Backbone:
């Protein structure tokens, strides 16, 4: 049995760079004592305020012990030692299949380096002897650190409460940062003793913090509050326990009743089920109070007696205790709240651990702490490990606020808790960020260490920058220029520089003022991202984070050494500080930026400065080069890295865009002049132009008969002697950068065009090889005839060089203040034309391509976030969303995408207005103002009532203060209540105006309610989208939007406001290469080889990112699918469970990716006979989907088909039919009435109806199925025959039933109903149908067929002209191809 899976290539198309960073064990923000980073990355092991992760299980040591960034052959997620095998196989493949080397980006020397690592990769057993508990044995690896054993003890249930200890082997204390292989005398069965050490003040504080973390380890408040990198997960609540521990359920005991709120066609949307609350979520209470008390610090005389700090504790029995932390441990003293008496109480209990002391004096603590630790260790590690970056929840239940001294200490500490381990100073972020990039990267182990270090420092920097930005906006940081106006103030905090997104000193006056100043940091961040991705040695970018918080945009940057000691004019040695008036250059920067520009397609060019000197540049003039005191070459202000977008730029009268672009309503004058194209668009445009260059040249070569001269390169090339007129027209159209169709393309016909394009792939490959064979040589060696052909081709595509393909962009071509060296020359005209062509390419090619992808469902966004991501992947900026919505409105099949686009437009415009709105609100009125804005935006109440926050204190503001605007309660604040003037009507008018001016789209509705009805929107989805965009957290309750007399939101509904954080995403390059190589193997049919490579990719991802990251979730999903295809259903379920947990934690509990993960897990649970669990997961997925986007979506059709099939399997035919009929309606709507998907839906409905005895309806639906199969596949196709047989059976049953009914009606007493021949479906048949509708096919292929398939494929790969699809498919049956087409999603 071999499995062919139709969506595996689609589904996991790429490991995209995602926003996350991760830690396991040592790296967890919550695990303080195990950070080991080398070469410039500081350890956090001594951090007094660094939380200890109270949660990685001993039996999941692999998740945390794989800390040292080397490949140790262990799959850290499932603990399997699969790395060596996969690497050796991979190396073998490379030697056996030279043709595959070009497809694999993993270099052979890397593989050699990796194999060396396995020489020492031996595991052995050691014995641990801790005090007070039974000794135990653990399996360790010689590549691991001593530190990791330390961390293991902090995580074990019986030793987790000990923090101040050392590990000793034969009386010798082990170095925490030594590798086990370097520990002298350590061997199999060695005994390591855990020895309690004396406390210091620092160790005592660490211990108290650790105990506090253990006591609150089950408390979800950190996740709701968005702190400590905690986030939510509800999988085990939904499934009522760990699915891996459940036994198989019999079908007759399945509870399958769906909740009313997820039934098809229900209109009411409930929010409370979004966060199902577990009864035992918080865990048992162990203490009432644990806090430091007012007697701290100990007086000198007590310090000399060993007192370190004093604690106040209230037990469950209401005993009030004062505890002393001393060098030898903890004891109760005789102090009270009013009297200081530090002497030990009688009886004297001195315990090295605070937990041991409390267990002795409080039976309630002893009982509940044991119960708490048991529950903690029962939770899945992925529920407890910290996420890479903070994930915020837009909705939360009412929270209890309890006394917590450590939280209080963190809040009012002047330092960041994570960084206090550096004596006497905060972290030098710039030095750390740059030092990690300077680490060696020649071998794979070096690259892993480097990428791990980069990732770790970057994630810490993002966390620190976010906290600092919030402190700046909240008014907790003093400005470095306090005398300036608030908007112009700048801040330095924790060695990070903070600036606000306002136009300071009219710097952006000519570019759009504050609007340009607000957009510039985002553009700058994109520039930092691409230069960091180029990763050029010797060129440095600043650590950059952009934070939106409370309506303000804050840019956080690391500080260049020495920059604060000199004026900017003295610092800048390259670029311009005044947008091109004064320009300087530097040879080293020209060299570095020139190298980077080759990859980024940036054209070196000359500009004229104020001294009339021509200055050469390899970047935009705004890009500044500063040599720091550390001698490094830094670049900053990268806001114009990419070419300008002329579709949103008002050009001079002499400059015009194409007519096709004008027809679509361009150019649109934007709020600012910093609109740039995306890097993805630049790459796509250059790739398209290169193909045009190749095709044009190949067509000309044909006419000259050059094909005969290059036979030795290409083999026999069969081409016509001269291109047809049609070919010439097509080539010309392609070379002009557009499709031959006009701008009013009928998008319903686009897939046909796409299919035609795909059929020409082979010809394109031949053309490419033909042209490259003559252009790869020396220019002088080209014959005159071929030289002229290449020149014409280069001219046609707009190449900047005469005799070769060269498309690069000058980012300054339309910069208003830049004087060009030859402003009227042909060169500049060419450069400007390229920029215009790229902008035209976006509109004429990329947007229609995106719509085609939506039509064939290769892109199927579920909400605004996934829609934005899909657009960005194709290089389409969000400002084009209005034009896309305009085009979508003309395609009925894309109605669901149209609704999502309109919802995204409305919420984005509301966000723009909310940003300005919030800047004028003082802190005391924040919740009242936000609730008022939400009422004006979403409530049907025409006159929402607002309450002023100051009413709570009954404050009457004196008239004389009425006009006083600057009250210091943050960066900018106002005591004017301007926000109260906002009304629903005025807000909607402003939104409509913003839609028109910003997006060029007109909304045809007068109110939000008419818009909801017209565009098929739902308010709950708008609320979710808006809150996530602006960082508002609301109360978890049911909201009534449609009451015209009562407002929806109140002050108490606004719980919190969070920052929206944007930053670059360092990535694991080697893991990415292994992953993509594995995908290629899978697509070729080598499932096992692909599985091993992707397993190794997972291994590398864990080495770089730690235990948790969005890319790891994608990798787990792929491995789960592969396991399922290869028949290991249990392993598939195990991997997919981890994928769901991880997606909930790093993406969000209601993210579209999480919905997909739930659906996959449901399928694997059903395959493992966990029917009830599968239904619960599907119900959860459907609920999340209808909250996110409503019922009108193809994804709902897929979910309903799954639910209907599973309900059918357990005999709930009536319920099953309701879901299947809904799926049928949606499939007809979005796939067309004659789609094969619709045929399957008709068949499923017919099956359900026949089981209910409704043969007439079943017959009618099966006829529809038969008709579609006959039309699409022909009468001889297996599916058509199956449907015909089903029709025959149904007809027979209907005739028998009708005869008997007629006999009864005519009064024949002997007439009685015969038993209906209704056979309940087997689980196997239901699973087969589930596989089909989910795009998974299991096709019987003999071993001989497989060998033939592979032999044919290998032979075809060796041919220089590439393999055709027919060659590849020779070894497979025709049925496989038809089946794949029929069931493809």
Residues:
């Amino acid at each position: 049995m071999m499995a062919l899976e139709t969506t595996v290539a689609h589904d996991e198309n790429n490991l995209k760079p995602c926003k996350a960073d991760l830690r396991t064990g040592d790296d967890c923000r919550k695990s303080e004592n195990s950070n080991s980073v080398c070469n410039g990355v500081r350890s956090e092991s001594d951090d007094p305020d660094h939380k200890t992760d109270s949660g990685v299980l001993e039996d999941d040591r692999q998740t945390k012990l794989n800390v040292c960034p080397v490949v140790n052959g262990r799959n850290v997620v499932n603990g399997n030692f699969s790395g060596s095998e996969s690497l050796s196989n991979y190396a073998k493949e490379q030697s056996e299949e030279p043709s595959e080397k070009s497809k694999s980006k993993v270099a052979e020397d890397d593989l050699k380096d990796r194999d060396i690592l396995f020489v020492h990769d031996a595991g052995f057993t050691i014995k641990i002897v801790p005090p007070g508990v039974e000794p135990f044995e653990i399996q360790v690896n010689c590549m691991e650190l001593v530190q990791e054993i330390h961390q293991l003890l902090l995580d074990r249930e019986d030793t987790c409460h000990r923090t101040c200890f050392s590990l000793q082997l034969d009386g010798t204390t082990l170095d925490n940062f030594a590798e086990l292989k370097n520990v002298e005398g350590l061997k199999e069965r060695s005994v390591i003793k855990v020895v309690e050490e004396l406390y210091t003040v620092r160790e005592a504080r660490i211990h108290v913090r650790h105990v506090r973390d253990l006591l609150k380890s089950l408390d979800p408040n950190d996740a709701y509050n968005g702190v400590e990198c905690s986030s939510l997960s509800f999988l085990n609540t939904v499934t009522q326990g760990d699915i891996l521990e459940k036994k198989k359920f019999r079908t007759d005991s399945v509870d399958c009743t769906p909740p009313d709120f997820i039934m098809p066609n229900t209109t009411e949307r409930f929010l409370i089920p979004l966060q199902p609350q577990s009864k035992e979520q918080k865990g048992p209470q162990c203490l009432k109070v644990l806090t430091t008390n007012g007697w701290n610090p100990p007086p000198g005389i007590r310090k000399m007696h060993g007192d370190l700090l004093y604690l106040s504790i209230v037990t469950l029995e209401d005993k009030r205790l004062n505890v002393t932390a001393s060098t030898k441990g903890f004891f109760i003293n005789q102090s009270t709240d009013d009297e200081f008496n530090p002497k030990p109480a009688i009886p004297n209990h001195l315990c090295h651990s605070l937990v041991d002391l409390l267990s002795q004096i409080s039976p309630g603590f002893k009982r509940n702490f044991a119960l708490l630790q048991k529950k903690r260790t029962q939770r899945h590690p992925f529920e407890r490990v910290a996420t890479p970056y903070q994930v915020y929840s837009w909705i939360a239940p009412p929270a209890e606020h309890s006394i917590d001294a450590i939280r209080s200490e963190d809040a009012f500490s002047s330092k960041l808790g994570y960084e206090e381990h550096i004596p006497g100073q905060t972290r030098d972020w710039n030095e750390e960020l740059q030092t990690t990039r300077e680490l060696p990267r020649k071998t794979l182990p070096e690259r892993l260490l480097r990428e791990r270090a980069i990732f770790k420092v970057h994630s810490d920097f993002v966390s620190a920058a976010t906290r600092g930005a919030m402190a700046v906006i909240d008014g907790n940081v003093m400005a470095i220029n306090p005398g300036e106006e608030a908007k112009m103030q700048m801040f330095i905090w924790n060695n990070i520089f903070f600036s606000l997104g306002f136009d300071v000193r009219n710097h952006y006056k000519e570019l759009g003022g504050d609007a340009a100043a607000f957009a510039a940091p985002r553009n700058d961040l994109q520039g930092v991202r691409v230069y960091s991705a180029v990763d050029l040695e010797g060129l440095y970018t600043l650590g950059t984070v952009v934070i939106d918080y409370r309506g303000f945009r804050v840019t956080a940057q690391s500080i260049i050494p020495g920059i604060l000691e000199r004026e900017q004019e003295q610092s800048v040695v390259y670029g311009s500080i005044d947008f091109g008036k004064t320009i300087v250059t530097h040879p080293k920067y020209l060299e570095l930026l020139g190298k980077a520009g080759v990859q980024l397609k940036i054209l070196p060019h000359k500009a004229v400065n104020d001294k009339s000197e021509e200055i050469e540049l390899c970047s935009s003039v705004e890009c500044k080069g500063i040599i720091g005191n550390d001698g490094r070459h830094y670049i900053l202000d990268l806001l114009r890295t990419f070419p300008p977008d002329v579709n949103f730029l008002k050009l001079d009268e002499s400059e015009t865009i194409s007519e096709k672009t004008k027809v679509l309503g361009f150019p649109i004058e934007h709020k600012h002049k910093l609109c740039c194209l995306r890097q993805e668009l630049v790459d796509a445009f250059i790739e398209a132009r290169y193909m045009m260059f190749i095709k044009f040249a190949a067509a000309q070569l044909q006419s000259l008969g050059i094909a005969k001269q290059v036979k030795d390169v290409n083999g026999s090339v069969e081409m016509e002697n001269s291109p047809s007129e049609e070919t010439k027209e097509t080539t010309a159209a392609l070379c002009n950068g557009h499709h031959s169709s006009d701008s009013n393309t009928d998008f319903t016909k686009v897939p046909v065009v796409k299919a035609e394009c795909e059929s020409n792939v082979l010809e394109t490959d031949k053309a490419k090889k033909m042209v490259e064979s003559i252009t790869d040589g020396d220019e002088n060696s080209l014959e005159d005839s071929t030289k002229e052909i290449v020149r014409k081709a280069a001219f046609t595509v707009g190449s900047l060089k005469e005799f070769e393909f060269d498309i690069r962009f000058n980012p300054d071509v339309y910069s208003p203040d830049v004087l060009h060296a030859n402003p009227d020359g042909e060169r500049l005209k060419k450069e400007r034309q390229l920029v215009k062509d790229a902008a035209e390419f976006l509109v004429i090619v990329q947007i229609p391509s995106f719509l085609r992808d939506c039509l064939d469902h290769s892109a199927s966004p579920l909400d605004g976030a996934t829609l934005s991501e899909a657009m960005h992947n194709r290089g389409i900026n969000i400002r084009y969303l209005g034009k896309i919505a305009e085009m979508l409105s003309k395609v009925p099949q894309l109605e669901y995408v149209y609704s999502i686009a309109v919802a995204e437009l409305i919420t984005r415009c509301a966000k723009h207005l909310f940003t300005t709105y919030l800047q004028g609100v003082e802190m005391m009125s924040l919740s009242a103002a936000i609730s008022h804005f939400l009422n004006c935006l979403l409530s049907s109440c025409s006159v929402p009532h607002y309450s002023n926050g100051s009413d709570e204190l009954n404050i009457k503001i004196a008239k004389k203060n009425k006009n006083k605007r600057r009250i210091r309660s943050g960066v900018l604040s106002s005591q004017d209540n301007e926000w109260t003037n906002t009304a629903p009507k005025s807000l909607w008018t402003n939104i409509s105006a913003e839609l028109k001016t910003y997006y060029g789209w007109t909304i045809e509705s007068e109110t939000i309610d008419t818009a909801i009805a017209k565009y098929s929107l739902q308010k709950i989805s708008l609320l979710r989208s808006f809150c996530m965009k602006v960082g508002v957290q609301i109360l978890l309750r049911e909201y009534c939007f449609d009451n015209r007399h009562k407002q929806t939101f109140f002050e108490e509904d606004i719980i919190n406001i969070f920052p929206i954080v944007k930053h670059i995403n360092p990535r694991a390059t080697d893991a990415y290469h292994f992953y993509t190589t594995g995908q290629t193997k899978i697509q070729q049919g080598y499932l096992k080889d692909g599985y091993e490579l992707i397993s190794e990719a997972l291994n590398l991802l864990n080495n770089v990112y730690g235990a948790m990251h969005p890319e790891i979730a994608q990798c787990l999903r792929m491995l789960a699918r592969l396991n399922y295809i290869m028949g290991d259903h249990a392993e598939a379920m195990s991997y997919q469970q981890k994928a769901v947990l991880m997606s909930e934690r790093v993406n969000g509990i209601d993210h579209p990716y999480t919905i997909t993960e739930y659906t996959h897990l449901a399928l694997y649970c059903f395959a493992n006979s966990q029917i009830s669990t599968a239904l619960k997961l599907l119900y959860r997925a459907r609920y999340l989907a209808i909250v996110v986007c409503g019922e009108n979506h193809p994804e709902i059709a897929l979910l309903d088909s799954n639910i209907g099939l599973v309900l059918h399997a357990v005999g709930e035919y009536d319920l099953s039919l309701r879901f299947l009929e809904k799926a049928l309606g949606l499939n007809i709507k979005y796939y067309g009435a004659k789609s094969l998907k619709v045929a399957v839906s008709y068949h499923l409905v017919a099956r359900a109806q026949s089981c209910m005895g409704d043969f007439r309806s079943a017959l009618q639906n099966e006829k529809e199925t038969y008709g579609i199969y006959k039309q699409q596949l022909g009468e001889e196709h297996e599916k058509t025959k199956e449907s015909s047989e089903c029709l025959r059976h149904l007809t027979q049953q209907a005739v028998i039933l009708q005869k008997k009914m007629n006999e009864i009606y005519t009064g024949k007493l002997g007439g009685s109903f015969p038993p209906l021949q209704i056979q309940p479906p087997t689980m196997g048949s239901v699973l087969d149908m589930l596989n089909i509708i989910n795009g998974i096919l299991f096709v019987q292929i003999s071993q001989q067929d497989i060998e033939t398939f592979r032999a044919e494929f290998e032979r075809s790969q060796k041919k220089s002209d590439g393999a055709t699809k027919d060659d590849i498919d020779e070894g497979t049956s025709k049925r496989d191809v038809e089946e794949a087409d029929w069931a493809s999603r």
